[in-house]
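W.,

You were right to be curious about this one. When I first looked at the sequence I had no strong expectations either way, so I just let the prediction run and decided to look at it fresh. Below is the sequence, 595 residues in total, followed by the output.
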Amino acid sequence: MSVKDENIMKQCHLLKGHSEHRTNEWKEQEVLRSCVQALEGRCSRRSEVSHQQKMAVKQFVAKIEVMLLNELSGFVERKNEPDRRLISRLNRELINIDAKDERPSIYHVPSPSRPAWKTWTLSDSDPNKMQKVLDLTSNIMRIPKTSSSIDDISEIKHSADWDARYITHVICENIGITPFVVHDSSRSDITEEHRRRGCSVDSSMSSRFVRDTPYVSSFREKSIPIEDGRFGSVSSSSLNAYEKLSTNVSSLPPLSDYTSHPSSILSSSITPTPREADEDEAAQREEIYCFGKSYLTRPICVEAFSTASKPNRLAITDSCGGVYITSANGEIEQHILIKNSSASSICVDEKNELLYVSVMQSKGRSIHVFDIALDCKKVEVISCPKDPKIEMSRTRWITVGPRGHLFMTSGDNIKSALWTYIRSKKAWKLLKESKKSRYQYLNVAEDQAEYKAVVLLTCDAANNRLLLFVVDHSMSLINEYDLSKTYRLQEHIHSPASAIVDKNGNLLILDYANGKLWILLSGVKGVRRLKQVPLPEIVKPQEALGICTKNDILYMALFNRREILCCKYLADGVFRPMVTSSPIQQRRSTSLPRN
């Protein structure tokens, strides 16, 4: 067999699919055309895959853009946080001074008619004088002079120093593309080629998918930082694909050594021997854990709920990251990113499967409503009332009644208010207005169905009070109680930040000033005893806010630590007293966080 015949046989074998009904020999032109068609098919397939990858690159760059802009917003918030706290403390002190001083103010600083940074320029024009003012203020307020945490945060580089080409190479390597590097020897040829095509030289080296009108985040919004193993995400699907918590939380161990009866706790505390104390402390350490460090930035509120579509879940509001729906162990199941906003208070209507989130935006406050059964799809936005006028920076705390009625409260030391939302009229109804008070946090204390009423619980943080409001089914306020006087709570609690009633009727109160948690036990024959709930040392003063309970577990939002604390405070519904008692050191809180 000749060489030509062997080549023809190879060609027939390669083109077998085209040869089963062919009797004539293949010509060289036909083989070449078949090769051209095969190459065109392969190039076309690559072009189709490339088109899909271009769409993915656009989405990828958009996500990076959102993350970078939100990181910038979060950077500014971290810079401003110490100053904001000091401003809040000074404003509250000025209010107290003005209330005591009957004489008119001698000098009044007017509000700026233009941006504040153009009016008050002392920090830039004379930094030494600015420091003297701060030192003088510290002496007046008796604030200890400590090094500010602002110095630990480095400044952002100027935009002229940003290296887009280097970042492009890093991203290319991350997604598996080998970057094309232009050497100096061929730079002129590449330049001439691009000029013939009508485009600039640098356009080929940078991303072609940068949006003309980039998305700009709000003053408080911040996505999830990339460092420390955290992934920023815009959708819940990407979170489910990439988010893997590093810690596996084991189930809570049973308390087999605890045999106390509720009556014994109400009567007197048990004083264990040192050996029993060590065992109890070890057991308590095993029943305490935290989660959320890898994705939370500033948790404000946590709510335990259970619906038909999402049983035994937690809803966590992150002031800079939206809302997270997690399991009881903190594993993310869904991330609701509310753009251009700061999320704070949250509540769940379990019967109707609705999630309510209190949101602050640059244009004002509103309540966003999500349908849990429809994968937390946003179904409504309810604007918050503007009458009476309360400082917008103060959180609008919300809760939902047993029959689906939405209640809201807020206050700013000058004025406080309690509202309810009338769905038939799509309007808010003012139930209570109070002066020189600051209503904070809101929860349903009791459902009095036989009296056709619901009892709401809130804290008056300005006057150290716990208040009960009784609202009937016609949405009218029929009574009000001050629990602080009834149970003499002011002797122990100096700055209530949040308070709830658990399923056993126990009242839990968080003291913001010292980070202590108190429980007013629901005893027999109406007798209640106030006890302190043991908490780990990580709970510091002025860094915890939202609390909730599920069965015997307590959940607490630690916004400074960026974590949710979980601890078992009951054993089969029975409160466990503290193992060791230490002297109570109370101090007035400097400021409550604004969200």
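Here's what jumped out at me. The chain has eleven helices and 26 strands. And, maybe more interesting for your project: The CA atoms of residues 63 and 260 lie 55 Å apart.

Coffee later to discuss?

I.
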